[in-house]
Specification:
The complex is a heterodimer of chains A (about 525) and B (about 160).
Chain A (H helix, E strand, L loop, with lengths): L2 E6 L2 H5 L2 H15 L3 E6 L11 E5 L2 E5 L7 H6 L11 E4 L4 H4 L17 H6 L4 H7 L3 H11 L11 H10 L6 E6 L8 H8 L1 H15 L3 E6 L4 H16 L15 E6 L9 H8 L23 E5 H13 L1 H5 L2 E2 L2 E2 L1 E8 L5 E6 L4 H8 L9 E6 L6 E2 L10 H6 L8 E6 L4 H15 L5 H18 L4 H18 L3 H5 L1 H10 L11
Parallel strand pairs in A: 1-2, 6-7, 6-9, 7-8, 12-16
Antiparallel strand pairs in A: 1-3, 3-4, 4-5, 10-11, 12-13, 14-15, 14-16
Helix pairs in contact in A: 6-10, 6-13, 7-8, 7-10, 9-10, 9-11, 10-13, 17-18, 17-21, 18-19, 19-21
Chain B lengths: L4 H14 L7 H12 L6 H9 L3 H10 L11 E6 L2 H4 L3 H12 L12 E6 L11 E3 L2 E3 L4 H12 L4
Parallel strand pairs in B: 1-2
Antiparallel strand pairs in B: 1-3, 3-4
Helix pairs in contact in B: 1-2, 1-3, 3-4
Classes of the chains: A alpha/beta (about 525), B alpha+beta (about 160).
C-alpha cells in the first residue's frame, strides 16, 4: 500500500530545509522499495517544529519534526512510514498542545491541505461562504460582516462591515476590491502563510466583498519580498478562474468578479492604503490626503474596499459559519480571533491564532516558552516597526485593541517580537527613526525630515552630548511627528521611540543605572 | 545578456504590448523589463513614457521611488539581508557586519567578479526563525555567520 506523506512547503519550512528533506525522503524510499505518495502542504505555522513531516494513521495525522535530511535514514530505520518510535516523533499532530490550545478559524486548513488543490479546499469547508453569499442580497452579506464584529486586521482595526457599507452606498460607475498583501511590518508573516498555505480562502473572501459592494474587479497588491506567495497565488487564481470561482460567471450565477495580482517593488509605505492605491495606479507611492476616503474615492477615483489579507479571509469564515459563530470568540469590541505572530528571540515561534483577550504573557510564555538564547526576556515589541516596546510590567495586558490603546500601544497586524536582555533599547529607538527615514514617502515634512533629525538627536543622547536638552528636543520632535504627519508612518514612529525611553531609560544613560 | 539598444527596444515593446490593456500599467511594465534585463536602462525610459502616454519625469520618478528598480546592471545574484527587528533580536547586526566583510562590499554594492550584489531588506516574513536572508528567490533561516559562509561555499561548487 502506498503511504501518504505530508511535507510543508511554505517559505519558512523551505528556509529550514523542507525541500532537502523531501528529496532525501524520495531517495531513501526508492532505495528501500517503499512507495510514498507525497503531498506538499503549506505549514501549520508551528515553525519551531518545521519541517514537520506527517503521515496518515488511524488516530489522524502523526508528525515528525523538526526533521533534517540527515535524519531521514534513521526515521525509515525506525519503521517510517508505518508506526514507529523516533526521537522526533510528535504523535498525533492535532494533539500537540502548542496547536491544540489555539483556536484556528482563519488558519484551520493551513498545513493540512494541499494549497493548490480545489478539491482539498472544498472538502475542508472552502467556498461555502461564497455559495452562501451568492444566495443572499448584498445588504445581508454586509449585515453579516457587521454583526460578526470583524475589524480590519491590517492594523487600523476599522470595522469591516461599515467600510463595505460605505463602498456599497457610494456612487460610482465601477467599484473595486483592493487587497493589501503588502505585509511590510517586520515580525509579521500571517498574510504570507495564508497566501502560501490556503490561497483560495483569500480569493473567496475577495469575491464575497465584490458581491457585497458591487465590484466586479479586484486587485491583490503583493509585496515583492514574497516570491513563493507570488507563485502560489498566481496558480491559485488560474485554478479558481478555470473552475468558475472567478470570472464573468461566478459559480454559474451570471455575476462577475475577477482578480489581478500586482507586485509591489520594495516600498514599506505602500502598505499604507492610499499609497498602495497610488502604486496600483502606476505612480510613486505617495500618501494621499484623506478625505476623501478610499471607500468614496479610491482606486482610479472609484469607490474601493481596501482590506488586509486576513480581513478578507475572515469574511469567508463569517459567511461560511455565520456571524454568531465568529463573534462568540473574543472580548469587548475585539471579536473573533487574533493571529499573533511570535518571532524574534523566542524558543517556540510561529503563528498563534487565539481569541482576542489572551494576555501577551500567555502567548510569549505559554507558546513561546522563553527565548531562543535561553536568556531572560527583557522587551517585547508588539505591532510591527511602529509598535511600542513593552517592559515586564506591561506583559499582562490582554491582546485586545482597546486594552493596547490604553497603554499607548497597538496590536497592529499582530506581530510580537521578543528580545532578550542583551537588547539596547536606545539602539532600537534609533533604528525606528532610521527605518522611517529610509521608508518615508517624503510627502510631509514631519516624517521626511523629522525622522532624520530624530536619528541625530538619539545619537547625541547616546553619546551624552547635552543629554538633558536633547531629550527635550526629542520629546518635542516626537509630538510634532505624531500630530503633524500625514499618515501612520511618521505618526507612529515616535511610539517605539517614546516607549523605549519611558520603559527603559537606563539604556539612554538615564535613571538609577546611569 | 544582450543589452544592446536593439534588444532593449524589443523587450520594452514586448512589455508594453503585454500590459497595454492594464489599468495603471507602469509597475507591471517595469517589473517585466527588469525581469528580462536585470535593470531598467535609461534608454527604456522615453520608450515607456511614449508607450504609456506619460512624461519621462513620471517614469523616472517611479523607477527611483521604489527600492527594487535599478537603473544599472547588478550582480548575477542579489543577496538581501534582513535588517528588521525580529532578525536584530537574533543577531542580524553581527551577520550584517560579517556578510559585508566577507563580500567586501556595502549595501548597494556588487562584488568585483560580478557574482553578488548586496541589499538590505526590511522583513522577509520569516520572523520565527531569524536571522533571515534571501539569495535570489530562496529564503534561508537561522543564518549564523558560519551558515552564511557555507551558503556561499555551496554556490561556489560546480553543479554535480
Amino acid at each position: 500500500m502506498t503511504a501518504r506523506v505530508y511535507i510543508p512547503a511554505d517559505t519558512t519550512a523551505c528556509a529550514l530545509g523542507a525541500d532537502e528533506v523531501a528529496a532525501e525522503l524520495a531517495a531513501q524510499a526508492a532505495v528501500r522499495g517503499v512507495e510514498l505518495s507525497v503531498v506538499r502542504t503549506g505549514s501549520r505555522g508551528a515553525y519551531w517544529l518545521d519541517p514537520l513531516i506527517e503521515t496518515d494513521s488511524e488516530q489522524g495525522r502523526h508528525g515528525f519534526g523538526p526533521l533534517t535530511a540527515a535524519e531521514v535514514g534513521s526515521l525509515f530505520d525506525a519503521g517510517f512510514p508505518g508506526p514507529c518510535e523516533h526521537p522526533l516523533a510528535r504523535g498525533a499532530v492535532e494533539q500537540i498542545p502548542w496547536l491544540a490550545r489555539q483556536q484556528r478559524l482563519t488558519f484551520a486548513r493551513a498545513g493540512v491541505v494541499d494549497p493548490l488543490s480545489l478539491d482539498d479546499y472544498r472538502a475542508a469547508g472552502g467556498y461555502r461562504g461564497l455559495e452562501n453569499a451568492l444566495a443572499m442580497p448584498a445588504q445581508e452579506i454586509i449585515d453579516a460582516v457587521r454583526e460578526s464584529g470583524l475589524r480590519g486586521r491590517g492594523g487600523a482595526a476599522f470595522p469591516t462591515g461599515i467600510k463595505w457599507q460605505t463602498v456599497r452606498d457610494a456612487e460610482g460607475d465601477r467599484k473595486y476590491v483592493a487587497c493589501n498583501a503588502d505585509e511590510g511590518d517586520s515580525g509579521t508573516f500571517a498574510d504570507r502563510l495564508l497566501m502560501e498555505a490556503d490561497p483560495f480562502q483569500l480569493l473567496e473572501g475577495m469575491a464575497i466583498a465584490g458581491l457585497a459592494v458591487g465590484a466586479e474587479r479586484g486587485y491583490i497588491y503583493l509585496r515583492s519580498e514574497y516570491p513563493r506567495a507570488l507563485r502560489i497565488l498566481t496558480q491559485a487564481i488560474e485554478t479558481a478562474r478555470t473552475a468558475g470561482y472567478l470570472g464573468p460567471d461566478l459559480c454559474g450565477s451570471a455575476r462577475a468578479f475577477d482578480i489581478e495580482l500586482r507586485l509591489g517593488a520594495g516600498a514599506y509605505i505602500c502598505g499604507e492604503e492610499t499609497s498602495m492605491l497610488e502604486s496600483l495606479e502606476g505612480k510613486r507611492g505617495l500618501v494621499r490626503f484623506k478625505p476623501p476616503l478610499p471607500a468614496i474615492k479610491g482606486l482610479f477615483q472609484r469607490p474601493t474596499v481596501v482590506n488586509n489579507v486576513l480581513s478578507l479571509a475572515a469574511a469567508s469564515t463569517v459567511l461560511a459559519l455565520g456571524a454568531e459563530h465568529y463573534r462568540q470568540f473574543g472580548t469587548g469590541r475585539s471579536r473573533g480571533t487574533l493571529t499573533a505572530q511570535l518571532g524574534g528571540n523566542v524558543r517556540r515561534g510561529g503563528l498563534v491564532e487565539v481569541p482576542f483577550g489572551v494576555t501577551l504573557r500567555e502567548v510569549v510564555e505559554g507558546w513561546g516558552e522563553g527565548t531562543a538564547s535561553g536568556r531572560p526576556v527583557r522587551a517585547i515589541q508588539v505591532g510591527g516597526p511602529l509598535g511600542t516596546y513593552l517592559s515586564a510590567s506591561q506583559w499582562d495586558t490582554p491582546l485586545d485593541y482597546e486594552a493596547f490603546a490604553a497603554i499607548e500601544g497597538m496590536l497592529g497586524h499582530g506581530g510580537i517580537v521578543v528580545f532578550d536582555d542583551t537588547v539596547d533599547l536606545a539602539e532600537q529607538a534609533r533604528f525606528a527613526m532610521e527605518f522611517c527615514a529610509v521608508e518615508s514617502c517624503g510627502k510631509c515634512t514631519p516624517c521626511r525630515v523629522g525622522s532624520v533629525r530624530g536619528m541625530e538627536i538619539i545619537d547625541r543622547i547616546r553619546n551624552n552630548q547635552q543629554r538633558e536638552e536633547q531629550l527635550k528636543v526629542l520629546e518635542a520632535l516626537c509630538e510634532t511627528m505624531v500630530e503633524g504627519s500625514l499618515c501612520a508612518m511618521g505618526g507612529l514612529t515616535p511610539y517605539p521611540v517614546r516607549s523605549a525611553l519611558r520603559e527603559f531609560p537606563e539604556d539612554f544613560g538615564l535613571g538609577p543605572e546611569a | 545578456m544582450d543589452t544592446g539598444h536593439h534588444a532593449i527596444t524589443g523587450i520594452v515593446a514586448e512589455a508594453l504590448q503585454r500590459h497595454a490593456a492594464d489599468e495603471g500599467a507602469l509597475m507591471p511594465v517595469l517589473h517585466a523589463i527588469q525581469a528580462r534585463l536585470g535593470h531598467v536602462p535609461a534608454e527604456a525610459v522615453p520608450l515607456i513614457a511614449t508607450g504609456l502616454n506619460l512624461s519621462r519625469a513620471e517614469v523616472h520618478g517611479v523607477i527611483t521611488f521604489y527600492h527594487d528598480f535599478r537603473t544599472a546592471p547588478r550582480g548575477e545574484t542579489t543577496i538581501h539581508l534582513c535588517r528588521a527587528e525580529a532578525c536584530q533580536a537574533m543577531g542580524a547586526r553581527a551577520l550584517e557586519a560579517h556578510a559585508k566583510a566577507v563580500l567586501g562590499i556595502d549595501y548597494g554594492g556588487t562584488t568585483p567578479d560580478g557574482r553578488y550584489s548586496l541589499e538590505p531588506v526590511y522583513c522577509l516574513g520569516n520572523c520565527a526563525c531569524s536571522p533571515s536572508l534571501r539569495i535570489g528567490d530562496e529564503v534561508h533561516a537561522r543564518v549564523t555567520p558560519e551558515r552564511f559562509d557555507a551558503l556561499l561555499a555551496e554556490r561556489q561548487r560546480p553543479a554535480p
